[in-house]
């Protein structure tokens, strides 16, 4: 290994932490997480086996796994997954567009912040899931009501993080760009957007999970397709193992969405510590 490669490897380790310790720490979750999952499954299996609990209340892990495999082979289940993914991503894209589009001017213009802040606070206090029945009445049982709920739940963390990100920019950096006769677009593109991106992506990480929750909850109440409807149908059929199987589907979707946004952070903000 050349001296330059060695210096690069040492620089990649966090300050104050030996290289070997940093390497072990980075691989630790790949060991501890599977072990913890196996321990939970073992306790679950032993409890079901020796407690005599009814499978209707708590099925064995093997029964849940078989129900999930059956779900994977069901074409209807995959169409339900597609419906939930479509509603989630559509609502999330709208939430990002409107949240960032409103957050930047609100953070830059004082009177806009003072005008919109009471509405933002009031909307945060309101249980937004309570809007689902109202939206079903207004927009019907189609995809529109589900997209709206997903967008509303994802909108507020994206908006608030955008405002926080733009307001956290050091005034001295802004003054330097102005002194070099930078235009407003250049200040926004090179300073404000770049500095606020880590905050925006943090809001997106929260928002994508909330968008999925919004889409699923709206499918509980109004709709005849989607994972939410599939979960309710399993409950009405008293298929507890099927309930767990659908929840596994939901959890996997949530992980995929979350880690996709985390990967986006690494691409868009490689210089930021949270993306390492």
Summarize the structure.
By secondary structure, this protein is mainly alpha-helical.
Question: Which features would summarize this protein structure in a list?
Answer:
MetI-like fold; 276 residues; 2 domains; mainly alpha; single chain
What does this protein structure show overall?
It is a single chain. The chain is mainly α and 276 residues long. It folds into two domains: 3-51, no CATH class; 61-275, MetI-like fold (Orthogonal Bundle). Helices cover 82% and strands 0% of the residues. It contains eleven helices and no strands. Helix 3 (61-72) crosses helix 11, helix 4 (75-108) runs antiparallel to helix 5 (110-125) and helix 6 (131-139) crosses helix 7. The longest helix is centred in the C-terminal third of the chain and has 38 residues, at 184-221. The chain is globular and about 75 Å long.
Shape: globular
Instruction: Indicate the low-confidence ranges by residue numbers.
Output: 1-17
N→C terminal distance: 23 Å
CATH topology grouping of the largest domain:
MetI-like fold
- Named CATH architecture of the largest domain: Orthogonal Bundle
Q: What's the number of helices?
A: 11
Average pLDDT works out at 78
Approximate helicity band: over 70%
Rg is: 24 Å
CATH hierarchy class name of the largest domain: Mainly Alpha
Order of helices and strands: HHHHHHHHHHH
Number of domains: 2
* CATH homology superfamily name of the largest domain: MetI-like
| Quantity of strands, as a count | 0
């Amino acid at each position: 290994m050349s001296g330059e490669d060695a210096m690069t490897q040492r620089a990649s380790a966090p300050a104050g932490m030996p290289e070997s310790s940093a390497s072990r720490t980075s691989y630790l979750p790949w060991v501890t997480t599977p072990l913890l999952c196996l321990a939970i499954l073992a306790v679950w299996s032993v409890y079901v086996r020796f407690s005599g609990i009814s499978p209707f209340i708590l099925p064995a892990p093997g029964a849940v796994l078989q129900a999930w495999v059956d779900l994977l082979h069901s074409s209807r289940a995959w169409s339900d997954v597609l419906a939930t993914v479509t509603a989630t991503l559509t609502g999330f894209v709208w939430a990002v567009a409107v949240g960032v589009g409103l957050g930047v001017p609100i953070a830059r213009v004082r009177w806009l912040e003072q005008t919109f802040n009471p509405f933002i606070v009031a909307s945060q206090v309101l249980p937004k899931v309570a809007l689902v029945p109202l939206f079903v009445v207004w927009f019907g049982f189609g995809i529109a009501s589900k997209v709206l709920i997903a967008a509303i739940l994802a909108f507020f963390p994206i908006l608030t993080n955008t405002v926080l990100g733009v307001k956290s920019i050091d005034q001295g950096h802004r003054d330097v760009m102005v002194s070099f006769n930078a235009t407003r677009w250049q200040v926004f593109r090179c300073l404000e957007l770049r500095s606020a991106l880590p905050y925006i992506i943090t809001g997106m990480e929260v928002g994508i999970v909330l968008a999925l929750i919004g889409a699923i909850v709206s499918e509980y109440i109004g709709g005849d397709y989607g994972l939410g409807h599939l979960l309710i149908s399993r409950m009405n059929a008293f298929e507890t193992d099927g309930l767990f199987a659908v929840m596994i589907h939901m959890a996997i979707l949530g992980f995929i969405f979350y880690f996709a946004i985390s990967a986006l952070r690494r691409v868009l903000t490689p210089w930021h510590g949270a993306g390492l």
